[in-house]
Amino acid sequence: MMEDEQIPAEHSVSAEDVPGASTTEGPVDESSGSRPQKTRTALILAAALIALPGIYLLANHWVATPVHSAPRQTAGTDIASLEALVNASPTNDNRINLSIAYINGGSASRAIPILQSVVAEDKSNVVAWNDLCVAHTLQKDYDNAIEECNKALLISPSFQLARNNRQWAQDEKNKSLGVKEDAVSRDAAFYVKDGLKQYNLGFYDQAIGSWQHALELDPSSASAENNIGTAYMMKKHPAEALVWFNKAIALDPTLQIAKNNLAWAQQEQAKDSK
Q: I need a labelling partner for 262 at 20 to 30 A (CA). Which of 64, 95, 246, 270 fits?
């Protein structure tokens, strides 16, 4: 997988500078040196369509790692079943999980009142504040989003996801006001990060596009090639993924995460052939 944070109980992204981070499978963030790790249940990053910078959702039972991450809804869990669960047992966790499903399904507006009900009852719920920030950013309500991430950070100053999301909301606000980004920053590393954000949202084709752009700027980026392979794995295309993992290893034989991903792809391909 990639590096940056987490993904459901399959493969996840984490950061090298995060305690407990491991090197398993996933995408790589060159700038952060992160490594993926398997998450316990699922943390969800909610936002950024195509070029939207980092938005991150987090559920209470899910383990977050700083930088970029986004676990996704576990297989077999659909919105209808989550709605039924909330109706039967409207706990904070159940409501947050439902709100994340709404956000992942492109219905951020439906998530907002649910998350607001959580913080109305529990003003110290840093997870709900962070996820509200994400939902409002997706709704282009940037001022509320920034305020909500600030509330999350007041409660937990070390909460890196909220810090990242606040920056994302600020960046989107700046774009809406016509504030130009520094073109110099759009180097290969920029597109590697951009791809990670899209990947964490489940926008695998857009992520592949960003990483291919990174390769155009830096053909020696083994991490970009590894990450393209990871996106193909998430698209259930292990044959294509194998090509990219092999390319990454050819460029950097020491890139262990690419070797792990190669083994992962080979296993999945073997399953498909049965």
A: 64
